[in-house]
Amino acid sequence: MNVFDFDNTIYDGETLVDFIMYYIKTDPRIWKYVPKLFYIYFKDTLHLFTVEEAIKAYAGFLEGYYVKADNVEEYVKKFWDENEHKIKPWYEKVRREDDIIVSGTTDFILDEIMKRMGIKNYVGSSIDKKTGKFKRLCFLENKVKIFNEVFPNAHIENFYTDSMNDKAMMDIADHVFFVTGDKIEQIK
Predict the structure, then answer these.
(1) Which own/partner pairs from 151-156 qualify as long-range (CB within 8 Å, at least 24 positions apart)?
(2) Which of 47-56, 125-134, 157-166, 179-188 has the lowest mean pLDDT?
């Protein structure tokens, strides 16, 4: 089976960053969280986070803003109306029915695009809407743990990613493909 990271692999960008940029236009209350969210984004990009640090870093935004946000589902649909075109065309060429997406993106954002793409097998980070606490953070070595919990006994033939943050997933795959833009290079 083929397993894929989502952000910057299949999707041309960082979903959470794009969603926040979209959401900023509709709700000015989010502005006070933007500097912290961009700080988190750059730490993540530079691979300077542990899972525990990432959970702590996102806590203020999730507990202070996300739990109070109204109509998030409506904004997610509108977001994908505007951003669905950012799914990279190469994916359709390699796509198989049993593909699995394993992403750090939160499931409340992933659910809509996976439905639109007809992808049944996926897992992302998950947040309790009432508390703003992570139920699971699908990030770094946690991706393997969550993948194995959700898809026990699944064998990864080909894994596609854009980031060395996915080293733990690379280690359990037969073949690894590194995606940079639309360029795909086999590295294992």
Answers:
(1) 151/100, 151/121, 151/123, 154/1, 154/3, 154/100, 155/1, 156/1, 156/2, 156/3
(2) 47-56
Using CA atoms, how far apart are residues 100 and 119, in angstroms rounded to an integer?
8
* Residues forming a β-bridge with 7: 11
pTM: 0.88
pLDDT in tens, 26-75: 777 778 887 877 777 777 667 677 767 776 777 677 777 777 777 888 98
**Do the bridges between strand 183-186 and strand 173-180 make them parallel or antiparallel, or are there none, so unpaired?**
antiparallel
One-letter amino acid for residue 181 of the chain:
G
Non-local (6+) Cβ contacts of 180 within 8 A are 162
Find out whether 51 and 142 touch, Cβ atoms under 8 Å.
Answer: yes
Cβ burial of 63 (10 Å; 0-12, 13-18, 19+) is middle
Residues contacting residue 16 through CB under 8 Å, at least 6 positions apart? 7, 37, 41, 105, 106, 109
Q: Which of 141, 101, 90 is nearest to 15 (CA)?
A: 101
Query: E strands, 60-167, where?
Result: 100-106, 122-127, 134-136, 156-161
Q: Residues 155, 161, 55, CA angle at the centre, nearest 5°?
A: 95
Q: What is the mean pLDDT of residues 138-156?
A: 94
